[in-house]
Each structure stands twice: as structure tokens, then as C-alpha cells.
Amino acid sequence: MKPVDRIIGVFMALLSVLCFWETHRVWNGWGGTGSMPLIVGSIFGLLSVIFFITPHQVRVESVNRKEAVGLLFIGGSFALYIVIINWLGFLISTWLFLAIVAMYISRSRPLSTIVWTGAVAACAHFIFRYLLGMYLPTGFMRV
Q1: What's the gap between Cα 127 and its chain centre?
Q2: Residue 58 contacts residue 5 (beta carbons within 8 Å)
Q3: With bands split at pLDDT 50, 70 and 90, how would you rate the model's confidence at 25?
Q4: From CA 70, how far away is CA 108, in angstroms rounded?
Q5: Interior CA angle at 47 toward 43 and 53, to 5°?
Q6: Count of CB atoms within 10 A of residue 112's CB?
Q7: 48, 18 in Cβ contact below 8 A?
Q8: 97 Cβ contact partners less than 8 Å away, ≥ 6 residues apart
Q9: Does the model's pTM come out above 0.90?
Q10: Nearby residues of 131 by Cβ (< 8 Å), 6 or more positions away
Q11: Which of 13, 37, 85, 94 has the most CB atoms in a 10 Å sphere around its CB?
């Protein structure tokens, strides 16, 4: 086992413990708020075990300038999404974020991208708001 496998395994184990602690803190039964950190903690725990018991061939390469700009663009877009979600609402801000990132990545057929990202945002809004009963920011338009 390489040192990088141990480091990743320990990091995943720590994330798992953090998720389990959060599960204990907010647990109110199955289907409640504690279910999600329990699931995520279990996934991190499983990944930790996998990194400890299986050998990996990890090769670290440097990031070139184009990749760095892309990461900064997508990360900046996500930061802007978090800032504007309360003002524009979940549906519109999610649509804008997905459309901008998809157009940056694919750079083809902008009309098709706008339609499909709008459909994804609308489906996510319907699922989270109406099927799962979650609170979503409505924004100034109350959508």
C-alpha cells in the first residue's frame, strides 16, 4: 500500500466519522434529517475500507493552465450560484448555473443547452419541492 492510499483512506474515514457524528446529532428517525448524513457517512466509510484493502496506481500530474481556468470558472460560477439563489430562487438560479456550465463545457447548440438545462432545473425543482417536501428559496418572483 502506497502512502497516498493511506492518506486518502484516513481522510475518507475522518469524513465518515464526521458524517456519523452529524447523524447522531440530528437523528429523528428514518426518513428524517439524519438519514442523509448516515448514507453519506456509510459511503465514505466504504470508500475508506476500499482504499485500505486494495492497491492503487495513483499518478499525480500537474494541472495545465486551461484546466485551471476551467476549474476556476466552474468554481466561481458555483459560488455565484450560492450567492444569488436566495434572490433569484432555486429554479431560475439553478437553470442559469447549469446553462452557463454546460455551455462552457460543450460550446455547441446554445438553444438546445438552454432547453435541456431548463428541463433539468424544472425536474429538480418538482422533485425536491413537491415529492420530497423540501423548502427551496423562491426568490423575488416567488417561483
Answers
A1: 16
A2: yes
A3: confident
A4: 17
A5: 145
A6: 11
A7: no
A8: 77, 78, 80, 81
A9: no
A10: none
A11: 94
* Amino acid symbol at 93: S
Q: Which residues contact 57 (CB under 8 A, 6 or more apart)?
A: none
Give me 140's grid cell. Answer: 423575488
Instruction: Report the b/e string of 9-25 with b at 16+ CB within 10 A.
Output: beebbebbeebbebbee
- Write the DSSP string, 4-73: HHHHHHHHHHHHHHHHHHHHHHH--STTSTTHHHHHHHHHHHHHHHHHHHS-------PPPHHHHHHHHH
Of the candidates 42, 116, 107, which has an alpha carbon nearest to the alpha carbon of residue 70? 107
- Lowest-pLDDT choice from 13-22, 36-45, 55-64, 106-115: 55-64
Query: Are 104 and 73 a contacting pair, CB within 8 Å?
Result: yes
Sign of dihedral through CA atoms 134, 140, 142, 143?
Answer: negative
Q: Label residue 137 left, alpha or beta by phi (over 0 means left) and psi (-120 to 50 means alpha).
A: beta
